[in-house]
Amino acid sequence: MEEWVLRRLDFNLRSVPAIAFLERFFRIFGIDQNEKDANAGVIMDLANDYCSFIQRDSQFLDFRPSLNAAASLMLAFNVSQSHVAPSIGLKKIPEL
Fold it and tell me: Which residues make Cβ contacts (< 8 Å) with residue 85, sequence separation at least 6?
């Protein structure tokens, strides 16, 4: 059965990682220009860190990579704008 599936798919198996979705979300929200905007750079760094953490934790394997990327980005937005930001070494970023 496995051989039949692989032949049917013509051995064309690909998986899009969460980081690829995250980079696309950066472009959609216009925060991929971190040279011009320091706040965008902070958001990108946080989101990348969260996404990397999520990929290493097995409890997140049940979720699609796009959802993990979106969750990472939203968490980065929320943390960077919250009162928690200074306690983890970040400057509190005003709403973008």
Answer: 79, 91, 92, 93
Query: What is the distance between the alpha carbons of residues 44 and 76, in angstroms, rounded to a whole number?
Result: 8
Taking alpha carbons only, the member of 31, 25, 29 closest to residue 43 is 31
Helices (H), 9-37: 18-29
The Cα 88–Cα 96 span in angstroms is: 20
pTM, two decimal places = 0.73
Q: What is the pLDDT along the chain (96 residues), one digit of tens a residue?
A: 888 888 888 877 778 899 999 999 998 888 877 666 777 888 888 999 999 999 898 898 899 999 999 999 999 888 888 776 776 667 777 665
